[in-house]
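Board notes (copied after class):
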Amino acid sequence: MSQSIYGGRIDNNFDQLLMNDFVKRIFQPATFESDFMLVDKVDESGNKLVIPDGLRREDFLRWMHKLPDTQTPAWLGLPNNADQVILQTKATTFVQKLLKMQAVTDDEDLAYQDVESQKNKSVIGGAARPQWMKNLAASVSEWLSIIPKEELAALKRTVENIKDPLYRFFERECTIGRNLLRTVLTDLNDVAQVCDLKKKQTNYIRGLLSDLQKGIVPKSWVRYNIPGGVTINPWIIDFSERIRQLHKIVEAAQKGQTALKELTVWLGGLFSQEAYFTATRQSVAQCKGYSLEELKLQVSVHNSQVDLDSSSFGLSGLKLMGAMHGEGKLKITEDIMTDLVYTRISWVRDQDVQSTGKQITLPVYLNNTRTTLVETLNFNTDQDKFYERGVAILCTALS
């Protein structure tokens, strides 16, 4: 029944698992019992909703009229505070639209005037600037103070390290970051000079001015996957953290391949998360002499950094939505999101994998839009309803 979809299709395997759980919960032999529970914890008082006990149409209508006027997310198997996520998303969208609608009012027609003509209006020059340009100049100054100014060094190749898939991956990451950092710093400095009436506008700079004063991330800066509608302020903070991580990667690479491998990586701060998992798998296969098909990914969560072996890697910054990890197991929680302080991933041969009991496979998404699936991870658990509650792991909280 869960495979019969009319008017659309499900293209995400985990969405299909959610549909399967929902259908199985409703359409089962137990529904013919008079005490079958449709919804657990219908309201804040913890009342339960059971199937109507009757055979006639009047019995069912009477049952329907007694239903609460307000339906909580628990009716769909979600926690009752799930609507907070929806409200947060709506609030974020509203603010983003408000920023885009921010008008330059009376000064709008001055936005693209030639800088030289503005200089002629005032000896000082600054007096001819429209208010939005003064505001943008202040914002640009603040952004430049956040972004690291130090040039991102290139990783030095050697005969040995170039053979390592993980080293080649980090080399590509640093190249992308270095080029983007140059672009961002150059553009911001040009915008600052234009706002100070020290440089003429070009068509490219006019586009930057138009985007930045509306809080929009310029298209020339979007060289990696970000949620649609992200405004410039959170993007600058996120980008700055990415560059700082790349500086740590360069420092680790200078110490040797061992230091680079043992470095704790903020997965959401990479430009290509999927490639990282591929590189770690190839690195272990090369080191151990195994084939890629033999290796299986295992995961463990810790409250602090732990020792790594030749097959393990450390991750930080992962977010767990709808559940928590404690005592070595995954558990359902009413919290919207919890942090996975330190996550160790290991590539182990199938024949060496030890059974640890019941496990659940969770999707790892890039962000809360859940449109980009990065990887899947298996966790030990003794509970159910994870798919029904939409439990997932996010690489970054950028939204």
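Comment from the instructor: Confidence is low (pLDDT under 50) at residues 103-107, 109-127. The longest helix spans residues 165-195.
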